[in-house]
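Minutes, project check-in
Item: structure for the 268-residue chain
Input as provided by the requester:
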Amino acid sequence: MTSHRTPPEPPPTLVLVAHGSRDPRTLTTVHALLDRVRALRPGLPVRLGHIELNAPLLPDTLAALGTAGSPGSAVLVPLLLGRGHHVKHDIPAAAAAAPARTLVAAALGPHPLLVDALHARLLEAGWPPSPRPAAHSRAGVALAAAGSCDPDSAADTGRTAALLAERLGVPVVPAYASAAAPTVPEAVRALAARGRRRIALASYFTAPGRFHAESAGAAPWIAAAPLGAHPAMARLVLHRYEEAREHEEARARTATPAGSGARPLLPV
């Protein structure tokens, strides 16, 4: 008697959702990050979708998943560092309108892996790995971020600043390139008023661009590179992917009677 086993379902596609930029370096950086993610998880389907400005746009990426009458499934991982309008509204709206069965993961930040990447970028820029106590007492960091009008986004940046301060043992002040205060120059002045004379800039940006360039220009000492395709970023993208799947599976187990055969990945 021949037994016929149902082949296991393929994992949901990981769709990395980038903002989009007119700066070509941004797209290069995003593709380098995708390559790192694929290298960490061979066999996992990974695609890219943009909110604006670059192709493919997120709705087009989602529409291309699966075939007519048999839509694929996807977990959308925002390449965004905190809760803002895109994370709360634009990405869920695109997911809800898609033929694919979708989950939306949390924004990347705050998370200790981001602190790993921020610390590594500071070390690359010249931050001393073992600073002398006298020099340490004069050091401080401005954490430059894009900025948002959403208070949750500011709270997320503030939490990352606190985690980085714990790692470095020096004050870390959030600063913003737009839409929020303080600006980078204001944060630098605030640190100087506290007696901090060696002030570094940590770049809380996912890729190079105008915001990073303007922020780095205001750094009185060293300015770190953006997070980019640091290995910790790739690990964090995969962590958010798996986290979203685990949360949905737990929700489905709680909501569905045992033995019903319901699928764990449900539409947004």
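Outcome recorded: The domain at 112-217 is CATH 3.40.50 (Rossmann fold).
No further action items on this chain.
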